[in-house]
Amino acid sequence: MLAVEEHVCVPFRTQRDDGDFKSFAEASAIVTRITSLAETHIQSLQAALESLGGHPAHAAKSAITNIEGWVASAIDKIRKTKVAKGMRDDYTALALCTASYNMLLTTANAFGNENVAQLAQRHLEDYAQAIVDIADVLPQIVVEDLAQIGLPVESSVAQRSQLQMRSAWRTGEGAHATTTTGTIETDATINRSQNPTYPTI
User: How far does Cα 64 stand from its chain's mean position?
Assistant: First the structure.
């Protein structure tokens, strides 16, 4: 987990200091925050690892060695819709982190290590919120990015897209909601039960 955080922090810092990202207020605020979170997480993970008598994984042995190049490539090489694509890649990197923290949390619980479990849960909550924040501002960033490269876009679609995105999230969250009297089924859940080819993603 320490190796994951150290790798994703590199492109986060690049974005934080990038002039194009600074010109987008929402994007700049988010990358500044996630960079700070990553740096804080790294310090906490280093301390936890030392307390267990462990050693940092060698970069060459890490499963995510290429992640900094993968994420940073969108920043350094892609000029058109650079910021929107950068935020998309941040979302992807944070999703990797949340899945990894889920695994760390479960492993800590399995070994009865409450300190590591609490650390993993705190970090998981940090990035879960960051993912929600990115998803929420991404429509506006996409529209601004397209406008900056001279494409004739309708700015009002950002708000409509944002509302549609939030609706999709609520549908997913409520797919298996339960009450004291039973399960609440959404349209998506019902459609899946009636049509095997109905998309699940």
Answer: 16
